[in-house]
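Below is our example:

___
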Amino acid sequence: MPNYTYDILILGAGPAGTAAALALHGHGLRVALVDKACFPRDKVCGDAIPGPTLTAIRRLSEAWYQELRTVQPQASAAASRLFGPAGQELLIQWKKPTFNSPRQQFDDQLLQLVRRHTVTTILEGYAVRDVHTSEQGVQLLSADASQPPLTAQLLLACDGANSVAVRKVLPRPLDRNYHCAAVRAYYIGLVGTDAHTSEFYFLRDYPAGYCWVFPVGGGVYNVGFGLLSAQVAARRVDMKQALRQLLREHPQLAPRFAAAQPLTEVTGFGLPLAGRKLPLAGPRCLLAGDAASLIDPLQGHGIDKAVISGILAAEQAIRCFQQQNFSLAYLQNYERAVHQRLGRRLQRSYRLMQLLAAWPALLRLGFWVAQRRPFQHWLIRLIG
């Protein structure tokens, strides 16, 4: 594949893709960041920005970290309040800085870092319909016939849960035991809430899921419900209706939402969960973020895993160009790096999620244990 358009193509300008672009800065490579959307764009999510996300960006650049912290709107998340299925409550104070911010603004702030501080070519509105990879290179074909194909020596596929790169390069069937279905809406007018405390509700009727209420700034709350897809299918759960019912009838949620007003419709999304070893490298291709199925099965978030895996993919790409080695065997060093950095913890989270789903009494025991201060720190470390 002669006359490459770029050295590296990054498919997807979410947290994994932008982190990869930032990590590639300064290495003399021709990099293009490609996304079907035009930013800012909405991304259905819980909007919690875990502390490791910020730590990973800070390791790249203190200045970039400080810019990222200025994103608005945002609500600092100083604490989390957990509600058990029997009405138990547990308040956890967090030491590391973290906040909640709508993904529409947060992802755009990350992209602005790439735009301001790197020479990355940013191609928005380029929807990819096909991906061709071989031992010689990569080609992306646009859904718009008027847009020319893009070629490169290496592809970093960061295009999310419905990744076209996964379908074309490393296809895998949907396994509902490693997939979560979720719904989300924005609300205002809640009462009895703290603008700096994220709330998690563990439910008696849905042991493999939870409801969340996250402040995102300006009196707005991200409200959602997630459940293991295997249970959704087995019980034929209408997720949107289930969320509305929870807000009307749950003894601790209903008073908070009695006068609340929705700002958006309830929107659904899918989350590919971690917990099993999957191929993350193909011919001239590396998967990162949600495309690599790196969402924490217990906590349900993946932004920090996306940023970390995007940086690891960029580091492997730099080594490939330094060594002029793009063989699959060499690319698989990235798989080992991801497993070493993230895999063991994510597999442990998956096993714990399975235990809680199969034995709901363990959740009640966990709340009881957590009330005893000597055990609270241990429990927090266990669940992350």
Remarks:
- The first strand starts at residue 6 and ends at 11.
- The mean pLDDT is 92.
- DSSP finds twelve helices and 19 strands in the chain.
